[in-house]
């Protein structure tokens, strides 16, 4: 996984090439989703950004996320982890893992040779791979072995 942090000017370029006006709010939202690697929910994005900017409204954050999704820069994860979660869209292909205990979503490498192939007349745009279970931390917590 390429976990290099994107710079603001790279993100502004991404928005420009997606024909999206790079407003400060959109930049802040993209920066958080792209660089936190935490697959946040809209509420988490709002909570985090409103700490630095008290006047930020929830709807501004939601609208910014929506605009970034429409522009193809952020994608909504098709994952059942209690509400919506978002990830940076232009990224190497990877799967996701949801911990059933702490609820965190982790990036998961795809199995070797895993690629969508178009066969039998189906033109597959994407295949999502999701794993579910316990993250290393929860798996090694003593409470879990008692369950
Ligand atoms: Zn966990
Ligand atoms: Zn991810």
The main β sheet shows up as: 3 strands, mixed
Strands, count: 5
Number of helices: 6
Taking the alpha carbons of the first and last residues, their distance comes to 33 Å
Ligands, ions, cofactors:
zinc ion
Oligomeric category: single chain
CATH homology-level superfamily of the largest domain: Winged helix-like DNA-binding domain superfamily/Winged helix DNA-binding domain
**Overall geometric form:** globular
Rg over CA atoms, rounded to whole Å, is 17 Å
What's the number of domains? 2
* Range of helix content: 25-40%
Strand arrangement, major sheet? 4-3-5
CATH architecture of the largest domain: Orthogonal Bundle
**Spans with pLDDT under 50 lasting ≥5 residues?**
none
Indicate the CATH topology of the largest domain.
Arc Repressor Mutant, subunit A
Tell me the strand percentage band: 5-15%
Summarize this structure briefly.
By secondary structure, this protein is of the alpha+beta class. It is 38% helix and 13% strand. Helix 2 crosses helix 4 and helix 3 packs across helix 4.
Structure description:
By secondary structure, the protein is α+β, with helices and mostly antiparallel strands. It folds into 2 domains: 81 residues, Orthogonal Bundle (Arc Repressor Mutant, subunit A); 52 residues. Helix content is 38%, strand content 13%. It is built from 6 helices and 5 strands, in the order ααααβββββαα. The strands form 2 sheets. Strands 4-3-5 form a 3-stranded mixed β-sheet, with no helix packed on it. Strand 3 and strand 4 form a beta hairpin. The two termini are 33 Å apart. 18% of the residues are buried. Bound molecules: zinc ion (2 copies). One zinc ion binds next to loops.
